[in-house]
Amino acid sequence: MTLRTAAVIGAGLAGLACARTLADAGVAVSVFDKGRAAGGRLATRRVETEARLRLGFDHGAQYLTAKGAGFGAVLAAHAVPWPSVTDRAGAFVGSPGMSALPRALAAGLSLSPSRTVVAVDRVGEGWLVRHHEGDLVRGPAPAAPPDAAGPFDAVAIAVPHPQAMPLLPVALATRLAPVTVAPCWALLAAFAAPLAAPDTLRPEAGAIVWAARDSAKPGRTAEAECWVAHAGPGWTREHLERKPDEVAALLLASLASLAGGLPPVLHAAAHRWRYALVEVPLGEPCLVDTALRIGAAGDWCLGSRAEHAWDSGAALAEALLAP
Ligand SMILES: Cc1cc2nc3c(=O)[nH]c(=O)nc-3n(C[C@H](O)[C@H](O)[C@H](O)COP(=O)(O)OP(=O)(O)OC[C@H]3O[C@@H](n4cnc5c(N)ncnc54)[C@H](O)[C@@H]3O)c2cc1C
Prior knowledge:
alpha+beta; Polyamine Oxidase, Chain A, domain 2; 2 domains; five-stranded antiparallel β-sheet; binds flavin-adenine dinucleotide
């Protein structure tokens, strides 16, 4: 049976790759995401301080690289080189923020933002997608029953693997058991003067494993010196349930010791990525039941980089389109 309609749950890179591939093949695609915009972990946090300074931080993925032609074409079309990453060839970023890349990829797609999908139900030969308004992970549980969309001929679930499990048929969900993903605490900090440090740091010891002068990325318009620092998986796990303010203070102290002191702090916040970087991937491009026309994709299928998410989403679309 020809695939005419599909729902894609999740508008991170995997969901966008899947949705674009399906749409290019003539399928009517509806995309749902619990966030306010497309992007997932390709994110930019905009902040206005009390002193009305406008700041921006790429607090998720820092830079993007491509080994294959598919994601290489995406970067060539929608990203710009960032030469400050001196230890990796061909590093790219979205501009004026990382989130510009997923925004460009989502253009022209039918995207329902602020919609948390809570169930995917088989109805006849198709699938009903049940969703609530808002981000239910962050917001309160709703009293009303969920809305329903569909039925769709196919469903692609492109969310982190723990969030995919309850939406998938049991036979597919059980195959996710070996996958593991590390969390990451991120520091978002702005200063009144430049730090005495190069644009990127990759320390080998201590809490912080990566720090970057975000305001030096191409096209940034931040009105102060902005830095993002990422804690390593061990440190993050040890401090996972601490309050963000406490984590921000600890990571600021760590950054101070790396930079030999800090200028006056204008802004400091911490963001916890519960599912940040894949440690053990599934080892297959995607998970799919081609008879039922349901499947899952994400970086967790192939590895820890954004390109893995893109390749996985595209592979799921191809599997669903196969006759
Ligand atoms: C701190 C950090 C640093 C990183 N650094 C790099 C880097 O430098 N280079 C690199 O290549 N990669 C990096 N990565 C990894 C990269 O960001 C990811 O591999 C990639 O963005 C994953 O894309 P995805 O589509 O698989 O998942 P996500 O981006 O997580 O997208 C999943 C989407 O699903 C949505 N969602 C989840 N559950 C539901 C639901 N029930 N209903 C509706 N929507 C839902 C979410 O809102 C989200 O938008 C980093 C990641 C983090 C967190």
